[in-house]
Amino acid sequence: MIRLLDDLDAEGAAVGVRVDINSPIGEDGGLADDARLLAHVDTISELCRRGARVALLAHQGRPGGEDFTELRAHAKRLDELVDAPIEYCDSTFSSDARARIDALDSGTAVLLENTRFYSEEYMSFTPDDAVNTYLVCRLAPALDAYVNDAFATSHRRQPSIIGFPQRLPSFAGRVMERELDVLGNIARSPEPRIYVLGGAKVDDSIDVARSVLERGLADAVLTAGIVGNAFLLADGVSLGAASAAVVNERSHDAVKNAGDLLDDFSHRIYMPRDVAIERDGERCELDLEELPSDSSAMDIGARTVATYAEILEDAGTAILNGPAGVFEDDRFETGTLELYKAATRAETSIVGGGDTASALRKLGLLDGFDHVSTGGGAALQMLTGDTLVGVEALDR
Length: 396
Ligand SMILES: Nc1ncnc2c1ncn2[C@@H]1O[C@H](COP(=O)(O)OP(=O)(O)O)[C@@H](O)[C@H]1O
Ligand SMILES: O=C(OP(=O)(O)O)[C@H](O)COP(=O)(O)O
What we know:
InterPro entries: Phosphoglycerate_kinase (IPR001576), Phosphoglycerate_kinase_N (IPR015824), Phosphoglycerate_kinase_sf (IPR036043). This protein is an alpha/beta fold. It folds into 2 domains: 5-175, Phosphoglycerate kinase, N-terminal domain (Rossmann fold, 3-Layer(aba) Sandwich), CATH 3.40.50.1260; 182-383, Rossmann fold (3-Layer(aba) Sandwich). Helix content is 37%, strand content 15%. The protein has helices spanning 35-39, 41-49, 72-81, 95-102, 127-130, 134-139, 159-162, 174-183, 202-214, 225-234, 241-250, 254-265, 302-313, 334-343, 354-363, 377-383, 389-394, and strands spanning 14-18, 53-57, 86-88, 108-111, 145-148, 170-172, 193-197, 220-223, 269-270, 274-279, 282-287, 299-300, 317-321, 348-352, 371-372. Strand 5 (145-148), helix 7 and strand 6 (170-172) form a beta-alpha-beta unit. It binds adenosine-5'-diphosphate and 1,3-bisphosphoglyceric acid. Residues 20, 22, 62, 152-153, 156, 354, 375-377 line the site of 1,3-bisphosphoglyceric acid.
């Protein structure tokens, strides 16, 4: 059974809270988006209000990447967002970090340094090995309890996710609770259940499609984005070399795997009927019969939108991951805008994916959805009907 914050005796307790505040970093090195910080405000505020002494654990970026940074700016922003003081500590489990936790007053918090500054946090462990890492061995004695609110990282076998629950009484935070309520109960959501799989994670999306079709979770899968182009190629449509190159760049097996899936479930998988390309600097829509084109298919066309919209408006649950096109370019945002707008008219609408959430923010559609997941990879894994290692670790 997973215990929730309601089960935690917070007053005076030193509580380690794993959050996911991994965010886009701007050219000036500051935070370019604070959506993931905002998501954790409820959990942190509640624990502080209830008198806990909160030690926040988080990562930012991956070693070697441009967004691999310290968490000073995150702490500053959290301090502004949360109605309790939040300090920054430039180490994660040193004696200084432990002293800072010991010195916390009730109702205050400290954000410890990027966990991935330590190599253990960028490796995959079994739960038994994770418990013996330096991070867990050094930090657990300074803590009375552990809360995992980092849904978006809970598919990672990292010590801050799977190590602490073996050493400390452990609880799910409010973000985790909301995500599990929705994504963990997809099989009970209203039918018909329509999945829209777009974006660029072609292999992941084909895996999700196979899994939800085989498990009977999906009544139909509507494909768009690069995923849709992979299915069109698998169906023998000659899109042109440019579109094929974009698909193959993402995955060598996509067209074959999409073809295998079409063999098994052709009647439940929908593919674009028209696409948008760039011609003379303008958006130009082409029916499939007018292809191949020298330019790459950058969006779905109006006929596809109309067909998909009709299906989505009648859906009991619309579950969407990945934009329908290159939404970052205003000429190719229409497919995503119209498709996602139609999905908000379904009885229940659920969205996952980091880029998808930014697309919805850009298009002003975020409020129309019943649930916008904080996770990308984690949400996709849950949508296949699987659980996450970090969730299993809490279930004791
Ligand atoms: N037809 C297309 N051609 C090229 N890129 C596309 C196309 N459709 C969508 N994309 C790109 O896919 C990216 C997002 O995909 P993905 O990372 O899978 O989404 P998410 O982060 O929501 O899971 C966006 O950068 C978008 O420009
Ligand atoms: O941004 C994240 O995941 P996402 O890109 O799947 O949304 C999480 O912070 C996990 O980061 P990771 O994929 O570097 O382990």
